[in-house]
Specification:
The complex is a heterodimer. By secondary structure, chain A is an all-alpha fold. Chain A contains 9 helices and no strands. Chain B has one domain. Classes of the chains: A mainly alpha, B mainly alpha.
Chain lengths: 223, 253
């Protein structure tokens, strides 16, 4: 029954996202457009672009995910759905995970799918694509999870939209560091780098931490 | 009937203020000693650090930056740990003093962190030839600085002060993951920043003539934190009293 409620919640958020198709599309467009800006600023030198490609992909992906964070709980908070969810038999921690999963499916996953395109535009060497996708598959769920803490904590705050990036960006730094270094070390010809394992470790730690912290923050918000 | 109700109300409000009142009594007793200790340890510590201690055989007089830099960095971590303890006691036991302490400590911690970063930068220029490197220790301390700022911003972002306190306390606890990263960053990664030389197992890798001024400066910084914390907490409690009295007056009792 709990599993059913979890699935229903994810399906509801996905349906909402699909009905307002603009949202997921905006994230991807933002991602591609921002990444396309850098060659204008830095000049089109192929060696330089290939070298900075992993960093650009990660930074812009991080900003794109950030863009959609504010609405993670805000609509439900404003129309009172959150209060009903807080009283439902499904624990609030599971509600958080369901909403994070839906958020990842509509922001992290599209960004992940668009990442090879950016790699192509920047002339990323062929051996980098596999590890790029692997790193983003491990890293972007962490972005959604950590972001959920920030979004839940800033719920109902003045200037919440500006506040969330301020709170969340410092916590994103480890994901960014290991995400980039996973690709960089592979491009330098090393196999079996620890960065991917560390990304996995961050995800494993963020999963329970985000669920508990965000649920505690939501409980205070609806109190 | 109404008489009984007021007594119950009064005793409950007395109960609520019991802890802060006891805190103020203890704080008033500690304050002069902390102030005197701070003055003495600053005087002796600064004299030893700036004049009596030897210059380093490689670094020359720039080594004296250490006597500000290292205690400031220790305090940056210590203050955050204090805040986390206060936040936890507030969230778990609803201890009002916990969040008052954390709120009062946050700007102090932010300034210590900034001081550690700024003096480190000044030290880095002659030693490493650069003001800043993106090394694990420096980056993680920079993140700590942003966590302090985020905590302060979140604390003040709500119309309802209690919401701000709870939200910021949660954020403070989440940020604790950064503390071990800062502490062990010099061991886990190959950094330009040197590893710990005082808190090693066995004897510290630093000579007594430098260890003494360093210890005294650390003591002075800690007492300074205590003095400022007591002052800020007391004014915070008085402010809360004032707001409560104002609200009671507005309600016409």
């Amino acid at each position: 029954m709990v599993g059913g409620a979890f699935g229903a919640l994810v399906a509801r958020d996905l349906r909402l996202a699909l009905r307002q198709r603009g949202d997921a599309l905006t994230v991807v467009l933002f991602f591609v457009l921002t990444a396309a800006l850098f060659p204008f600023g830095l000049g089109p030198e192929p060696n330089l672009l290939a070298r900075i490609a992993p960093g650009i992909v990660w930074v812009t992906a991080l900003l794109a995910v950030l863009l959609s964070l504010e609405r993670l709980f805000l609509a439900d908070y404003e129309d009172g759905t959150l209060e009903l969810l807080a009283q439902a038999p499904l624990p609030l921690e599971a509600v958080v995970l369901a909403k994070v999963l839906a958020h990842w499916l509509t922001s992290g996953l599209p960004v992940l799918a668009a990442a090879p395109l950016i790699g192509l535009l920047y002339g990323l060497p062929a051996e980098g694509y596999g590890v790029l996708l692997a790193a983003m598959a491990l890293g972007t769920p962490s972005l959604s999870l950590i972001g959920a803490i920030g979004a839940a904590v800033a719920l109902g705050a003045r200037r919440g939209g500006v506040l969330v990036p301020l709170l969340v960006l410092p916590l994103y730094v480890p994901v960014l560091i290991f995400g980039v270094s996973a690709i960089d070390t592979r491009l330098q010809g090393f196999e079996g780098d620890a960065s991917l394992l560390l990304l996995g470790a961050i995800l494993a730690a963020a999963l329970p931490l985000a669920a508990f912290a965000a649920a505690a923050a939501l409980r205070q918000a609806v109190e | 009937m109404s008489r009984a109700a007021t007594t119950v109300g009064e005793s409950r409000s007395l109960h609520r203020f019991a802890n802060p009142a006891r805190f103020v009594r203890i704080a008033d007793a500690v304050y002069p000693w902390a102030l005197a200790g701070m003055a003495v340890s600053f005087l002796i510590g600064l004299y030893l650090a700036l004049f009596a201690s030897p210059a380093d055989y490689q670094q020359g007089d720039t080594v004296r930056i250490m006597y500000v830099h290292v205690p400031a960095a220790w305090m940056a971590l210590f203050v955050y740990a204090t805040m986390a303890a206060g936040s936890a006691s507030y969230l778990i036991w609803r201890h009002p003093l916990g969040v008052v302490a954390a709120k009062a400590a946050a700007p102090v911690g932010a300034v210590f962190t900034f001081l550690a970063l700024a003096t480190g930068s000044l030290w880095g220029k002659p030693m490493w030839g650069t003001w800043w490197v993106w090394d694990a220790r420096l980056t993680s301390v920079l993140i700590l600085f942003f966590l302090y700022l985020g905590y302060i911003a979140l604390m003040n972002a709500f119309e309802n002060a209690e919401r701000g306190q709870k939200a910021a306390s949660l954020l403070c606890l989440v940020g604790v993951v950064n503390l071990p990263i800062i502490k062990f960053s010099v061991d886990w990664w190959n950094t330009l920043h040197q590893p710990a030389s005082v808190s090693r197992i066995g004897t510290p890798a630093i000579h007594e003539s430098m260890l003494w001024p360093l210890g005294l400066m650390a003591l002075a910084f800690t007492l300074y934190f205590l003095v400022v914390l007591i002052t800020r907490m007391k004014s915070e409690l008085l402010g809360a009293r004032l707001r409560a009295l104002g609200a009671a007056a507005a309600e016409g009792r």
